[in-house]
Amino acid sequence: MLRGLLLPLCLLASLLHAEGDREESALDISGLEVREPIPGRMMSSAYLTITNTSAEDRTLLSASADWAGLIEIHTHIHEDGVMRMRQLPSLIIPAGESRVFEPGGLHLMLFRLSLPLPETLTMTLCFDDDECLIAEADLMVP
Ligand SMILES: [Cu+2]
Fold it and tell me: What do you get for the CA distance between the two ends of the chain, in Å?
């Protein structure tokens, strides 16, 4: 399976400048998958793992893609014995830890999809400290 292509914007910037230090990101995004929407629906969800290899907590602030009108960070909570989704304004990735987005738990909620989805599903994830990472998603066909 194709692992998500990861290209830190700062690295891209330094490549464009031909020289300069390659800044390694302390954040790693892996296994990004977009679930194919149910026919007739313009929303879906995406899953991934974010690992923070630094000694400081980091915060996921937003996600965006040119094939989705809106992407929200969601989690599931139990409320009166019922599983409900709740939007999170941001998500802390603790120092040295990973946060796993998976069905029934954390997920990215994708709204207003441009259908059919493009062949290459590139998503931008932005964190604190003005760091944005671009990752390529696989399409999860049920
Ligand atoms: Cu949701």
Answer: 16
